[in-house]
Amino acid sequence: MTELVIRPLIAGETPLFASLPDPGLVGRAVLGDVYGMIADGGQYRPEWTWIALRDGVVVARAAWWAKPEDEKPIALDWFDFTDAEAAVQLLRTAPLHAEYSLLLPPDWREKPEVRAAAGARAAAAEAAGLRKLVERYRYSWTSDCALPERTGRLVYRPVPDDDVLRGVVRRIQEGSLDAHDVNDIATFGRDGAVEEFLRILSWMPSPRDWWRLAYTPAGELAGLHVPAHNPSGPCIGFIGVVPEQRGNGYARDLLIECTHDLVARGATRIAAATDRSNLPMAAHFARVGYPISEERIDFV
To answer: Measuring CA to CA, how many Å separate 240 from each of 138, 212, 257, 264?
Structure first.
């Protein structure tokens, strides 16, 4: 076997990245995305885009992403290959580390060729040192969907200050069914997990004064909802209920209110996600009318 060359792209090599044969069954192709460098109007930096070549032919590729002002990548977006061994070596060689979300069509389990493509990428990612964290549903509410009626069961108020917010988030993370919350607590500790939560939400370009605490008519705290914009557009930034109020269906109320807030600000498409294992939240998304647009597997 000829020697493997692993290196980052340089400006103007977008066609080389695109030369890898890929049927588009999984990954960014599921969204219809096309790789492009920032200099050409795309989203990716050449120094964060790596390829593996044999005899000048691309056999594996990977591209990491962040906002233009970010100093480190926050996501591994592209990871495709025709040579699994080369793909593993690429991820081990590139000096870049970020969560990898393997995007999949909703019916991927029913199609053997898609299952095989997903399994191959998962195996390569894990062989390179990544760990499967969770499978998630991705949702896309559009203006073609019915706007759910507000329930009127909760009262919403702005978040008064960061100390109050930290206390609320810490309570919501108690007994959380969200795998990222559980992983953050194990990795950073309770206080560190709260700071990581705030870092991620504050990273979004939408203003923090959109965030709302929810209370029962009796004045008891029920939870928090965060209508937001990520770099791609409007999204459900966060929905959370404090432990003592769980079991009342308040997450559905928060999701409905969050949807109304975003629509009032002009949203015609709203992205959202939850873990497949978070059965209560997945049921709320279904009841409110959020269709599943994709699924994903997150590796950390």
So the answer is: 17, 11, 13, 21
